[in-house]
């Protein structure tokens, strides 16, 4: 098995408010199975409220896992993320890092770029002397295409793309094997997005780091990720290698997301299947298949029974009662 991260039935619930029957639970991540291959650039997509950010945080142990199992396996190391604590948790903090969503908010305005990048080394006690720290900071800064002059300055002197490179350097400095990049390019201009994405891809190739790349933007994911998983209201509804998913999506929700991407092929334009309505509130989720309130193919069974993620054996997983039937219809 070449998975760095494996989760089964993973759930994250938050207690909210206090209703008539006591506190209610918001299921932000609901029985998710996920396998993230070592060295891959794994995309996780969904609308806001789909649970993708919470899933990423749970895999970093930044929010508590409330159900199921999750493991990080690398060589001899096998960490059970549901129980990890003490020195093993400390070690995991080195191995698993987050790149922040918004490079404008993430960097302390009162610290120099050098200090921002060096901070994790100092907090985790990874270097012993200032010289050692400086050498490591310089090495990582160069990888992220920052120069020595940049290190003496404060973040406000930099553009959004440069700030994102500073955030990436900070995430890389502890030598992680797993990085969760949450909407890391969403706040940037399109031309700069490409720059930052290229840098992340280069880091993946050069350092063999595994990325979980979280985005609401399928076109960004299409160009960067090896594998894509789609979430809807806390559920993982489809997961496949990127090419397979884009060539032949199986879940009606994925199909709807794709048709929202403007097509250059005039033959495609008429076929767009519009995604109707809003994503339901996570606190008041539909019964059965959570997508039934927006799905043009919903039948009675969909309202009554929640579809499980099927593993048909071709690496293309899907959670829909009707996917085989719909596939046959498209082929006909
Ligand atoms: Fe649509 Fe039913 Fe499939 Fe859900 S299970 S996506 S409602 S067809």
TrEMBL record:
Query: Which protein family is named in the record?
Result: Belongs to the ABC transporter superfamily.
Q: Which residues form the ABC transporter domain?
A: 7-258
> Looking at the UniProt record for this protein, which Gene Ontology cellular component terms does it annotate, in alphabetical order?
plasma membrane
In Swiss-Prot or TrEMBL terms, this protein is called: Oligopeptide transport ATP-binding protein OppF
Say where the protein is mainly found: membrane
Q: Which Pfam families match?
A: ABC_tran, oligo_HPY
Provide the gene name from the record: oppF_1
> Per UniProt, what is one GO molecular function of this protein?
ATP hydrolysis activity
